[in-house]
Fold this protein.
Amino acid sequence: MRAPRVLVAMDRHQEWYTDLIENHYEEARQKVEEVLADTEVDENGCMVTPTDQPRKLRFRGHQDRAYRFVYCIRHRLPATRDQVVRHRCHNRLCVNPRHLDIGDRRDNLLDERDRRANGVDWGLI
Ligand SMILES: [Zn+2]
């Protein structure tokens, strides 16, 4: 009997992003531009989607939050499930690539605590 093949520890989203970045990059970039075009810029420079919840998008058989898609495609980064795309502006409807950053869940909690204590430092963004 053959030994079971050891699967590379990639989750489904990571595989999806890897495929997009390697094989469908131009199309994915186009999709990012569409998302960014369908926003309103507020006084903080946030590019806000016209949705009540963080916008979701569907692309080549998968769905993800638009801000995560924007970040991963722009940075050619197939993020794992444990990596969260953070909003440095704390506006979850924002998809401005300059306001997004990557971290783990713990960073996200620390961000939130820092925002409550100190507010947003727009000079750093
Ligand atoms: Zn923003």
